[in-house]
Amino acid sequence: MIGAGGIGSAVIPALAGAGVGKLTIIDSDVVELANLHRQPLFTESDIGEPKAQLAAEFIARLNRFVEIAPKQERIGADNARDLLVGHDLVIDGSDNFATRLAVSDACVRTRIPLLSAAAVQFQGQVGLFRGRPCYRCFVGDAFDSDDCDTCAELGVLGALTATIGSFAAMLAINTITGIGEDQVSMLHLFDGEELKWCAIRIPADPGCRACGSA
Q1: Which of 9, 65, 68, 204 would staple 41 via disulfide (CB 3.0–4.6 Å)?
Q2: Taking the chain (214 residues) in consecutive chunks of 10 residues, what is each chunk's mean pLDDT?
Q3: Domain count across the chain
Q4: Domain region containing 118
Q5: pTM for the whole thing?
Q6: Does residue 133 have a cis peptide bond before it, meaning omega lies within 30 degrees of 0?
Q7: Longest pairwise C-alpha distance within the chain
Q8: Cβ distance 190 to 132 under 8 Å?
């Protein structure tokens, strides 16, 4: 799980409660007061404490049979492969394009399925990528820098991150267990104003520099 923020606060309890045996949580941040409306894993007494460790402690209280590996590190292009290799599924709940693209590129190289989930303001999306097409096919090469807006800057409803995170957890469980139709390359979009879901299929970009030769 990349990120123990708004998305992660819904995904982590759902997967631990469902009995996923091993969970790695990667997050370099500490809890801030402004997080609390969308990150119910934490309380005011946790302000200033590392999110990854707090999330691990939450899981230990919820399900003592889950093996937990908290990583208080910022994941990026330089360390993503080392942090992700050996996992069966990566769930990315980070809040910026640079991180998501670095994670996606590493997943392509290591052939690990990627479940990407994002929410901002009233809009959310969840997609499953396995090799080709990849997340970079969807967003392109324009967002590799760290100067893109995040949900912390643009705002997001706690109810929205909970909705998207819960959907991501359901998709993760279906993917791990093989329940239902394979959702690879499908992007599920949620409009929080209209309260409607829709799904689109992401095509492969012939010129994608990450998966073009995958």
Answers
A1: 9
A2: 97 97 97 96 98 98 97 97 97 95 97 97 97 95 66 80 98 96 97 97 96 78
A3: 1
A4: 6-201
A5: 0.94
A6: yes
A7: 50
A8: no
